[in-house]
């Protein structure tokens, strides 16, 4: 995504491209939201739908592209499906329940029986 490329490189070209995307969206504005096109070479032929990912993913990534880095700390969060921020294990109070070989860690709060 342009957002991740911007955050990684800080190359202004990615924000420039994001601005061009925002400008292009004005051509798909409808009375109730935004539409999609069957063919970008025929912008007057619009579909009668707005895909859910447009707001859930596209607009969210564009917001993050132009927002300060503090809006989402990429060391504390990963972006899942449709750009949903999920806390990393390191950033939460959770701990991974398995060791490096995938075996459950033994501690005083966990008892494992041989039965």
What does this molecule look like?
The protein is built from three helices and four strands, in the order ααββαββ. A two-stranded antiparallel sheet has the order 1-2. It has helices spanning 2-9, 12-25, 52-66; strands at 29-30, 33-34, 77-79, 85-87. The longest helix has 15 residues, at 52-66. The radius of gyration is 21 Å and the shape is elongated.
The shape, in one word, is elongated
Helix content: 25-40%
Beta percentage is 5-15%
Low-pLDDT stretches: 110-115
The radius of gyration over CA amounts to 21 Å
Query: How many DSSP helices?
Result: 3
* Rounded mean pLDDT score: 84
| Helix/strand order, N-terminal first | HHEEHEE
Seen as an oligomer or otherwise, the chain set is single chain
Derived structural class: alpha+beta
């Amino acid at each position: 995504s342009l957002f991740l490329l911007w955050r990684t490189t800080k190359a202004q070209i990615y924000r420039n491209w994001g601005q061009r995307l925002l400008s292009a969206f004005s051509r798909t504005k409808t009375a109730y939201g935004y539409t999609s096109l069957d063919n970008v070479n025929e912008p007057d032929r619009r579909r009668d739908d707005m895909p859910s990912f447009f707001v859930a993913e596209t607009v969210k990534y564009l917001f993050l592209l132009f927002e300060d880095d503090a809006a989402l700390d990429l060391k504390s969060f990963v972006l899942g499906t449709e750009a949903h921020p999920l806390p990393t294990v390191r950033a939460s109070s959770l701990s991974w329940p398995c060791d490096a070989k995938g075996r459950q860690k033994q501690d005083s709060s966990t008892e494992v029986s041989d039965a």
